[in-house]
Design brief:
Layout lengths: L1 E5 L2 E5 L14 H10 L6 E4 L6 H13 L2 E5 L2 E5 L7 E2 L1 H4 L9 H8 L1 E5 L11 H10 L3 E5 L2 E5 L6 E3 L5 H12 L6 E3 L5 H13 L1
Parallel strand pairs: 6-7, 10-11
Antiparallel strand pairs: 1-2, 3-5, 4-5, 7-9, 8-9
Length: 207
Amino acid sequence: VTIKLIMDQFLIKGCKELNGRVKINGAKNALLPIMTATLLSPGNYKLNNVPNLRDTRTMIKLLEIIGSNIKVNGNTIKIDTRKCNNPEAPYDLVKTMRASFYMLGPFMSRFDKAEVSLPGGCAWGPRPVDFHIKALEKMGAKIALKDGNIICNGKLKGALIEFEKKSVGATGNILMAASQANGKTQILNAACEPEIVDLCKFLQLIK
């Protein structure tokens, strides 16, 4: 086998013809925000082709802390969010999986309040979560920082949101926050990665 690196390409000349079958698992980056989006509308959800990864298991623990009833059968997960009543995402879980910050939008959308730990603990600083915070404030949320936790309250309403730069996490969070908010929300300079497209499709199913 000869391999050459030319600029940003790999040219590979193999010595054998490839054949066979490969099973492709669902994408983790699409799955995690969709799992959090099940909080938006109380009900029963069934997700198939779920990859068995540490992040998936961490998200299951977090959803259970919030009050979800979850059953796992192989690569299928059933999530019942009808009795969720605890809009908090503790540091122990958020620190191990940044996608836990996706809870902020669904919490505010469903409960009008949220307590979510900063991914980096008590340090605030110029971190990407600023985009999430500023956007939610434009939508009417009152936000404070206490002991490394973001405390949010308020009834959200539609707003014009323009991100300084594209952010997959902030786009996903605001999409979920806006899905149940009063009025119309427009997001400018939004991220359009495949996981955002998948989240939009899911939101359209549950609206």
